[in-house]
Design brief:
By secondary structure, the protein is α+β, with helices and mostly antiparallel strands. It has helices at residues 23-31, 55-68, 71-81, and strands spanning 2-9, 14-20, 44-52. Strands 2-1-3 form a 3-stranded antiparallel beta sheet, sandwiched between helices. The longest helix is centred in the C-terminal third of the chain and has 14 residues, at 55-68.
């Protein structure tokens, strides 16, 4: 099982969308500065996650969300519309 997750940085007021088989470990890596895309806006908090049966489906969902390029859309998902 894979997860698509949404993180939020209070410091930069930005969302980050990613996917992983283990969201807890991945969040620790983000907050430890081990992910180049997120190291400047640490710390991150987990706002939402959704499970998918395969890595391919999780990757497609991550890409779909990122292609929207909309923090309003991400906030809408977090509010229970995912």
């Amino acid at each position: 099982m894979f997860w698509v997750y949404i993180l939020f940085s209070e410091k930069c007021k930005k969302f980050y969308v990613g996917y992983s088989a283990d969201v807890g470990v991945r969040l620790l890596r983000h907050n430890a500065g081990m992910v180049n895309a997120t190291k400047n806006c640490r710390p991150y908090i987990l706002k939402a996650k959704k499970s998918f049966p395969s890595q391919l489906e999780a990757m497609k969902e991550e890409l779909r969300i990122k292609n929207k390029k909309s923090s309003k859309y991400i906030q809408w998902l977090i509010e229970g519309n995912w």
